[in-house]
Every structure is written in structure tokens, then in C-alpha cells.
Design a protein that fits this description.
The protein contains 35 helices and nine strands. By secondary structure, the chain is of the alpha+beta class. The strands form two sheets. It has a six-stranded antiparallel beta sheet. Strands 7-8-9 form a three-stranded antiparallel beta sheet. Strand 5 and strand 6 form a beta hairpin.
């Protein structure tokens, strides 16, 4: 292990080597480190960690390969780590190797980065420490942090970690390739710093922040930074002599010192080094005290022009931007003594945001000239207007009056917006809101809907936003009729203003599909969503995610319409499309994964569905908590998958907990509570707990009838389930009458070849069989089988199993009644 002096030499050599072109680095390394093999190996390893090894030139790549081979042999393609299978090596550094991997159990498609940590085999104590730190990492749920999916220890005791695979470039490389302006670079760094702040709140310090550990990918046309490679502090045999990790040029002085006291301010230093490099294109010289503007001025003229062009400006303007606050921020973050730095990433972020908003950062003190320049930048319109007024006094140019009139119009528009929103929010008076819950929200929305068309008619974009907001909230509150009306109003408004309100039109269409399903209008929902998908695909590239999202929703509609093959195709295609466009923790993407699991559950793919839903429950619980609505909905979907798989005890465990949470959060008069009670009733009845299941069946049926109407799909399903319960509780005649009434509605609203109609036919056959009406029962059982075959095909064992069992019972009863000869159907 290198001592402190050797480490300082290594730091200096690394800094100098990485400033050289790749073609010159090998000669430099042999010349300056050839006398010390250990130093030479460590220097090469650092360069590996700092550079994408797949893009190195041949000589350096060969040297890198030698170092890597000296560490350990590459894992073969196909090697399993838990449910993950390695595909190929994608990177290697001082902490370990990183491989591209996929799920090997077929549960779902996902590319991940699988990291094998360089460490001796873990004993029991270090194994426990590893698991503890992995749990800490898994708790980090932030758009700027690559998600941790899994972790484990192989048969030899070596640790592995599965992370989100980011299709991106290192931060500085992405900025240079995109020629990002200085402001764009600072915005990206600020977003990454928000992720670091989130990690610190979870008790995790990164220890190795550098461009290669902040990857930037483009999502919906916007750059999104993702932090990777949070360190796992596994002890090694050399731990007592080790320095605090990190990469020279970016790590804090205390990290370079053996036994240094490392805390969140070490990451502040690294962020300061990143800011410095993003600002002027050069890494900071430790302890020099030279600001980024001073470093830029010291460069040759050609390098200055190159740095400025990469930031879409001139050297003179770039220097001025650096002096206007960024110099002070960078130097404050890079102080050698931790106590002299920003005390937290939050304080650093505050100054970055102040600079972005054209306010002087607190690190700059009370510099009057900087404050004045910042004031001018914050108030460009006002200052420009004052200058125009002065010019008008001299020259009388008409353009001044026109500019001021435009400014007044824009101010009036903003005033209307703020007054409208303020008046709506003012109606939520604490005295009114006490104990009113949903009633209060509906009252606010009703008032807003009456006023929007009247008060916002002159501003169609604002009116569309308000109508859309009202419709979304009404749909969330299960007020489907009013929601449909407002969402249709948005679409009609967009039609009167072509091109202006396209996003609002598509968003309204997306939610309208759900509202129509809630109102029991499945076919209309399918038509609306299909039209929205086609329109989004023809539109701007940034609308493509909406097309896939609506396709995912359409898959659920198709299941309800009895078209499982189309539903499965659309659900898979939508999930894959959103996986390409959205980050792994995006809620629209997670919802699409959940819908795919739901479709799999109802089409015979319960094993895959359960694996996917378990993963979603774990991720949503970690991100939002056990009682978050999205977590609870995902748990109820997992229970449905168990029901389809006939694992009724497992379903009951999930559903009892979810029902308890819903009752605690929303009470009994709520759609979530009622629907999950219906599921719980089925899990109980299938285990022979008939009496216990009755109240849950009745509650689900009564709520659906009252809120969705007598012919809605949900009402048909809950009434059918209750009719099945009547039969099993000894009320066969009442069950038969209810199933006949439901069959008349289903034939009229759904068609005969629909899975719900088929289940009603099967239930009717069971009731008739119990009453001794074997001939009628046989006819209805065969009709149920024909309907299920029309929906699923004859080879789908799972969906047809119950119907075949009923038919077999009826046929056995018929043979018994006829003395062994088969009774003909009526």
C-alpha cells in the first residue's frame, strides 16, 4: 500500500498524465514511474478509473488490460449473480469491474450495470456491514441518482451490486460535445448536487465525485445527470493504511491523508472541483487559490478561444461570467480546511441557484460592482425599458411605445393568471376545510370550473391548463362524469387553437381514457386512446412518451374488452418504449411496468407478473413509504397476481394489510377501500372462509353500484362475485336470479365473447347445477367455454381452467342422472 509521500507523488503524476494526449501517456508513465512498479500499477489503475477503457487508444488500452488482468480474471458471459446474467465488461476501475447484465429468469427485460467489488471474501462481520450499506444505498431515490436494484455475495464470498445502467456520457465530455453554455453547465451540476444532497440526507457520502461518475443522458430532449458508483466502504486487509478513496484532482485534501476525517464536506470539495473544470476547462491545482478566471487568463490565446467556443461565448464574456460569482463559489468549495468550505451541499446549492438567478452568491461577500451587474441581469426588461424610454425622449422612436405596450399586455396576462389561482386557493379556508376531506376538494373544483370559462376566455392557454387541472383532479376523486366533461372541453379548446395547445390536448386524452373506463365506457375509452396514440406519434419527439403511456393504458382497456393478445402486445411495446425514453424512477415508466404485470397476471403469465410486481413494491416502498397510494395500489395488484395463481393465502396476507391501510387513510366510503375489500373477499372464500368473506363482497358491490352505475364493468364484476358468494353460502336460488340479471346486461353491453360474460355464464351454470337444473347448466357451461375460447384460444390452460372444471362437474352430474349415459344439452 502506498504511504503518504508516495500518494502525493501519485497525485501529481496522475494530474500531469491526464493533461496529456492519450498517445503520450504511456511514455510519460514509463519515464516518471518506471522505477516504482507499485506506483506504476496504481497510476495506470487511476487512469482506468478516470477514462472509458473501451475508447482508449491501443497502446494505453494494452497497458490498462495488463493492469486489469493482474487484478483478476474477467467473468465469462452468462455467469449468474442471483437472477442476473453477465453479458460483457463495460468498465473497470480501482473499486472493481462493471459488467452489462440482464435478468436471467425471464421475469422482465432490463439492462443493468453489475459491479463486482474488488475485496477479499467477506467474513460474517463484513458481510453484515456490506448488507447494511447496500440497504442505505437502496434507500436513495432521486432522479439524479442511478437506482440500486439488487446486491449480494457470490459463493466465494465476493460482493456484487446491481445498478441502473445509464446510456450516457461523463459530465464534462457531454458538456463539451454539446458545446453547453456556462449556465447550462452550472444547471447540470446543480441537478447533480441535488442528488448528492439527497444521499447525504440518507447518511451516504459518495467519496469519488468526478465527471466519469456523473453520466449525462438525454431524456425527452433534455439532459439528465445521473450519479453512479456510490462507494461501498467494505474493509480490506489494508484498511488501516488506506487513504479515503477518491480520484486525484477531485478528492479533498483530507481524503489524500491516511486516516483523514471524511464527512459531507469532502463531497462539497469534489463538487467545487467539478464546477472549476466545467467553468474553465482545467482541473484545479490543489491549494493554489487561483480562481477559474485566473486559470483561464493564464492559458495561451488559442486555448482560451477553444474553452470559450465550447461554452458558446467569447473569452472576454466568459471571463466576466466567471468573475460574476462563480470564482467565489468555486474557491469557497475548494478550501483546504473543511471548516472553511460550505458547511453542506445545501449551502453550495443555494449559491449556485443565486448565481443562476442573477443574484450575487453569498460567498462573494458584499461586492458592490458584482451586486450592480447582478441587478442588471435580473432586471434586463426593466433596464432595457428605461433605456428605451430615454431613447424615446431623444429620438421619439415609435418602437418604444410598442415595446411598452407588449410589456403591459404580458404583465396583464400574468396578473390574470395569478389573481385567478389566488382566488381559487383562497377558497380553501381552514374553517371550511376542517373534517371535509374530499368534499372540500370537490367544492373548490366546482367553483373553479364555473369560473374558468367565464374569467379566462381571453387566455386560451391558461384556460386549457385550468380545465385540465380540474379534470385530472376530478378523475382522481372518482368523479368520472364531470372529469370527462372537463377533459373533453380541453380537447375542444385545443381544436379552436391549432398548434397552441397540443400538449394539453394529448394530456387530456391520456386522462380521458381513464375517466371513460371509470364511467363504464370501455369501447369509447379504447377509441379515444387509439386516436391519442396516433396523434402523439405524429407530433413532436418530446410527445412520444405520451404515445407509449397511452398505449400502456390502452392495454388495460383491451383486457377489459376481452382482447388479451392485443393487450399483451401493447403492454410489452409500451413498457419497452418508455424504458428507452424515461429514467428508471420515472412514475410513468413504473406505471407502465405495473400495467404490463397486470396484463401478464390475467393472461397466464403469473410467475413473471409476480416477480415484476414484487420488484415494484420494493422500489416504491423504499422511495415513497409503505402507505403511499402508489405503493398500496402496486401491492393490491400483486395480490391479484397471487389470486390468478391460486395462491390464496399469499393474496390474503397482502390484502389484509392493504385494506387496513386504506381504512386508516381514507375510511370505508372510498373506491380503493371498496375494490380491495372485494379482492380480499375472494381470497377468503377460496380458502373456505365463506362467512368471513360476505361483508367484504357486499361492501364492494354496494360502493360500485352507487358510484359507477348499475351497468358499469366494475359493478358487473362485483355483483357477479357476490352472486358466487350467495351460491356458496347456501342461497342457490338467489344466486341464479342474480346471474341471469347480470347475463342480460353483459350480453347487451359487453357481447357474448367477453371474459366477464363467460364468467357470468359459468356462475349461472354452477347455480343451476346446485338447483338440479342439469340440462340448463350444461348449456350455459358450454356457452362459457365457447366464449373463453373465443377470447383466449383453446391452448390457454389458465384462463379456461375454471370453465372446464365447471363443465366437467355438470357432465358428471348428467351421467349420474341418466344412469351413466351422457345427458344431451337442451
Amino acid at each position: 500500500m502506498l504511504n503518504a509521500d508516495a500518494w502525493n507523488r501519485l497525485t501529481d503524476l496522475f494530474h500531469r498524465a491526464t493533461e496529456l494526449p492519450e498517445s503520450e501517456r504511456i511514455t510519460f508513465i514509463h519515464l516518471h514511474a518506471g522505477d516504482d512498479p507499485e506506483l506504476q500499477r496504481e497510476l495506470l489503475a487511476l487512469i482506468v478509473a478516470d477514462t472509458d477503457a473501451t475508447r482508449l487508444r491501443a497502446p494505453l488500452r494494452q497497458a490498462v488490460k495488463a493492469v486489469v488482468q493482474a487484478r483478476d480474471a474477467e467473468v465469462a458471459s452468462g455467469t449468474r449473480f442471483g437472477p442476473w446474467a453477465v453479458e460483457r465488461l463495460i468498465g473497470s476501475g480501482g473499486m472493481g469491474r462493471v459488467y452489462l447484465a440482464r435478468r436471467a429468469d425471464g421475469a422482465y427485460e432490463r439492462e443493468v450495470a453489475l459491479k463486482l467489488v474488488h475485496t477479499p471474501a467477506l467474513d460474517e462481520r463484513r458481510h453484515g456491514r456490506f448488507e447494511y450499506e447496500c440497504r442505505l444505498l437502496a434507500q436513495m431515490q432521486h432522479p439524479a441518482i442511478a437506482q440500486i436494484h439488487d446486491a449480494g455475495v457470490d459463493a466465494d464470498g465476493h460482493a456484487w451490486l446491481v445498478m441502473e445502467y445509464i446510456h450516457g456520457q461523463p459530465l464534462s465530455a457531454w458538456c463539451d460535445q454539446d458545446a453547453s453554455s456556462l449556465r447550462q453547465r452550472v444547471k447540470l451540476l446543480a441537478r447533480a448536487a441535488e442528488g448528492v444532497q439527497h444521499a447525504h440526507q440518507k447518511g451516504v457520502i459518495h467519496r469519488d465525485l468526478k465527471p466519469g461518475n456523473i453520466l449525462v443522458a438525454t431524456v425527452d430532449g433534455q439532459p439528465l445527470p445521473k450519479i453512479i458508483d456510490f462507494g461501498i466502504a467494505i474493509e480490506t486487509e489494508e484498511a488501516a493504511d488506506a487513504v479515503g478513496g477518491g480520484t486525484p484532482g477531485y478528492m479533498s485534501p483530507e481524503q489524500a491523508a491516511p486516516g483523514g476525517d471524511i464527512d459531507a464536506r469532502s463531497d462539497v470539495y469534489s463538487l467545487g472541483a467539478l464546477l472549476y473544470e466545467l467553468a474553465c476547462g482545467v482541473r484545479p491545482e490543489p491549494g493554489s487559490g487561483i480562481p477559474p478566471s485566473g486559470c483561464l487568463r493564464a492559458l495561451p490565446d488559442g486555448r482560451q478561444r477553444e474553452a470559450a467556443e465550447l461554452r458558446r461565448t467569447t473569452p472576454r464574456r466568459l471571463l466576466r461570467e466567471l468573475r460574476d460569482g462563480l470564482d467565489a463559489i468555486a474557491l469557497k468549495a475548494l478550501q483546504a480546511e473543511p471548516a472553511a468550505r460550505y458547511d453542506s451541499v445545501s449551502s453550495l446549492l443555494d449559491d449556485l441557484r443565486r448565481w443562476l438567478a442573477h443574484y450575487p452568491p453569498r460567498a462573494a461577500g458584499t461586492a458592490r460592482l458584482l451586486a450592480m451587474r447582478s441587478f442588471v441581469r435580473r432586471n434586463r426588461l426593466m433596464v432595457a425599458a428605461a433605456a428605451l424610454v430615454a431613447a424615446a425622449l431623444v429620438s421619439g422612436l415609435a418602437i418604444t411605445a410598442w415595446s411598452l405596450r407588449e410589456a403591459r399586455q404580458e404583465a396583464a396576462r400574468a396578473k390574470v393568471t395569478s389573481e385567478f389561482l389566488a382566488s381559487v386557493l383562497d377558497s380553501v379556508d381552514p374553517a371550511i376545510s376542517q373534517d371535509m376531506d374530499k368534499t372540500l376538494m370537490l367544492r373548490v373544483l366546482d367553483d373553479a370550473s364555473r369560473r374558468a370559462a367565464r374569467e379566462l376566455a381571453a387566455y386560451p392557454d391558461i384556460q386549457a391548463d385550468m380545465e385540465l387541472l380540474i379534470g385530472i383532479n376530478q378523475n382522481s376523486l372518482a368523479e368520472f362524469g364531470p372529469a370527462v366533461a372537463h377533459l373533453q372541453a380541453v380537447r375542444e379548446l385545443a381544436g379552436r387553437h391549432p398548434g397552441l395547445l397540443e400538449f394539453q390536448y394529448l394530456r387530456a386524452t391520456q386522462v380521458l381514457g381513464d375517466a371513460l373506463v371509470g364511467a363504464g365506457k370501455q369501447r369509447e375509452a379504447g377509441t379515444v386512446l387509439a386516436e391519442g396514440i396516433e396523434r402523439a406519434r405524429r407530433g413532436k419527439p418530446e410527445y412520444l412518451w405520451l404515445a407509449y403511456d397511452m398505449q400502456s393504458r390502452l392495454a388495460m382497456v383491451l383486457i377489459g374488452m376481452g382482447r388479451p393478445a392485443e393487450a399483451l402486445r401493447d403492454a410489452r411495446e409500451a413498457e419497452k418504449g418508455l424504458a428507452r425514453l424515461l429514467p428508471a424512477d420515472n412514475q410513468n415508466r413504473l406505471d407502465a411496468e405495473k400495467r404490463l404485470a397486470n396484463v401478464l397476471s390475467s393472461t397466464g403469465g403469473q410467475v413473471q407478473a409476480i416477480a415484476l410486481l414484487r420488484d415494484l413494491v420494493q422500489r416504491r416502498t423504499a422511495a415513497m413509504g409503505a402507505d403511499h397510494p402508489l405503493t398500496l395500489v402496486t401491492r393490491s395488484d400483486l395480490a391479484v397476481a397471487y389470486l390468478y395463481q391460486r395462491d390464496f393465502p399469499a393474496a390474503e396476507v397482502q390484502l389484509q394489510e392493504v385494506v387496513s391501510a386504506y381504512r386508516r387513510l381514507y375510511g370505508d366510503d372510498n373506491s380503493y377501500t371498496a375494490s380491495v375489500r372485494g379482492l380480499l373477499a375472494s381470497a377468503l372464500r377460496q380458502q373456505g372462509k365463506v362467512e368471513e368473506s360476505g361483508p367484504h363482497y357486499r361492501a364492494a358491490m354496494e360502493w360500485s353500484s352507487a358510484h359507477s352505475g348499475p351497468e358499469a364493468l366494475d359493478t358487473l364484476i362485483t355483483r357477479h362475485n357476490h352472486a358466487n358468494w350467495l351460491l356458496e353460502s347456501g342461497h342457490a336460488e338467489a344466486s341464479e336470479q342474480e346471474q341471469r340479471a347480470l347475463l342480460e346486461i353483459a350480453d347487451r353491453t359487453l357481447s357474448r365473447n367477453h371474459p366477464v360474460t363467460a364468467e357470468i355464464l359459468r356462475g349461472l351454470a354452477e347455480a343451476e347445477l346446485a338447483l338440479g337444473e342439469v340440462g340448463a347448466a350444461h348449456g350455459h357451461a358450454e356457452a362459457a367455454l365457447r366464449a373463453m375460447r373465443a377470447v383466449h384460444g383453446d391452448d390457454s390452460d389458465d384462463p379456461l381452467r375454471s370453465v372446464r372444471e365447471t363443465l366437467a362437474k355438470v357432465e358428471a352430474a348428467g351421467k349420474k342422472a341418466s344412469g351413466g349415459s351422457r345427458q344431451a344439452p337442451p
